[in-house]
């Protein structure tokens, strides 16, 4: 049986791997001229690592990543708001893995036969029967997976009445700095902004900043340096070591809840189905989970025990409640970090009074996924 994946990002490639290993003939259509990744770093949390284990790639990821749990969250002056019990987090949920996104994409590419990857193909329309009209002609596979991101043509084709993505109220910057000694993965919450940093295996530091701003605001490294000049160490030093052309900026959007992730022979996956804010760091992780569950659901269709349509309905029932719950939690965490919604003093007092054990338990619905 044939599967066509639209989109060659983390979720699309993971779905292709899972289906290929289940016996499907797979093709991945990517509109870009090459399967490349220009992003910065990525923190893969324990649930996502278990999904990579199911793809037989988890150990390879761990081998080239920093595998420490996050240390915690500080105020702008450096005072701890949340100091994680790192050992307890690791015992309960497993390891984290922080690496460059390009390294993960390279692993996913190598796990697929080269002939399955078709770059430079623009998808124009997707139909419920699985017909895909694209710049290379027309394809009629047994199943179509729309892994084509926030502005998914798959979703626009088959969910024309679905709400458009909505702006979350802040813009996000990502960058890699020169090597610098840091205590581990830390996030710093200020007045209308947040800054996070995490070490990579080669000593460089993955950094990100989220700044409350209207959509389409301009910004750059000079603006970030001014904004965070008074922040606790090592944030100013990290920003000083960044090259101006190494800063990526994207306005932050999320997708309102869909009523289903499947229609006919077509399913949505990753951001195309449930684009969420980055506050929990679960965007890529949920796409990886989607890929594993989708392949397991479709296995019954490949063996003739059910139909593709029924298998995709099972995938929808398994994934939609969980991903929409996580998107909601991520949105709520973003609201907690926004002083316009929760006064700074009240937020800081509540976080500092909460025992570390409460934080560990609160993460179970997100991190405790086992497939």
UniProtKB/TrEMBL annotation:
It comes from Actinomadura rugatobispora. InterPro entries: FAD-bd (IPR002938), FAD-dep_Monooxygenase_BioMet (IPR050493), FAD/NAD-bd_sf (IPR036188). The keyword Oxidoreductase applies. Residues 2-329 form the FAD-binding domain. Keywords: Monooxygenase, Oxidoreductase. It comes from the Bacteria. One of its GO terms (molecular function) is monooxygenase activity. This is FAD-dependent monooxygenase.
């Amino acid at each position: 049986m044939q599967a066509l994946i639209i989109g060659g990002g983390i979720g699309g490639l993971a779905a292709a791997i899972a289906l290929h290993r289940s016996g499907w003939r797979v093709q991945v259509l990517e509109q870009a001229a090459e399967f490349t990744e220009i992003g910065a770093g990525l923190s893969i949390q324990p649930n996502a690592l278990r999904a990579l284990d199911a793809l037989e790639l988890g150990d390879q990821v761990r081998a080239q990543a920093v595998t420490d749990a996050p240390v915690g969250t500080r105020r702008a002056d450096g005072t701890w708001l949340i100091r994680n019990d790192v050992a307890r987090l690791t015992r309960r949920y497993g390891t984290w893995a922080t690496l460059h996104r390009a390294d993960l994409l390279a692993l996913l590419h190598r796990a697929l036969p080269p002939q399955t990857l078709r770059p430079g193909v623009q998808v124009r329309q997707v139909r419920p029967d699985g017909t895909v009209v694209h710049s290379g002609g027309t394809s009629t596979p047994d199943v179509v997976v729309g892994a084509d991101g926030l502005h998914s043509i798959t979703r626009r084709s088959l969910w024309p009445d679905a709400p458009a993505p909505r702006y979350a109220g802040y813009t996000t910057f990502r960058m890699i700095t020169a090597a610098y000694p840091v205590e581990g993965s830390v996030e710093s919450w200020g007045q209308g902004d947040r800054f996070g940093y995490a070490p990579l295996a080669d000593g460089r530091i993955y950094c990100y900043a989220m700044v409350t701003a209207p959509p389409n605001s301009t910004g750059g490294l000079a603006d970030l340096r001014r904004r965070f000049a008074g922040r606790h160490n090592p944030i100013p030093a990290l920003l000083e070591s960044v090259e101006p052309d190494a800063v990526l900026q994207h306005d932050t959007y999320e997708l309102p809840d869909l009523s289903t992730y499947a229609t006919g022979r077509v399913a949505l996956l990753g951001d195309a189905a449930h684009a969420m804010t980055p506050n929990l760091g679960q965007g890529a992780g949920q796409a990886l989970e989607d890929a594993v569950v989708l392949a397991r659901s479709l296995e019954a269709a490949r063996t003739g025990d059910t139909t593709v349509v029924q298998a995709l309905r099972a995938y929808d029932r398994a994934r939609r409640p969980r991903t929409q719950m996580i998107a909601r939690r991520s949105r709520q965490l973003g609201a907690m970090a926004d002083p316009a919604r929760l006064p700074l003093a009240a937020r800081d007092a509540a976080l500092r009074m909460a025992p570390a054990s409460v934080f560990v338990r609160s993460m179970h619905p997100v991190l405790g996924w086992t497939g």
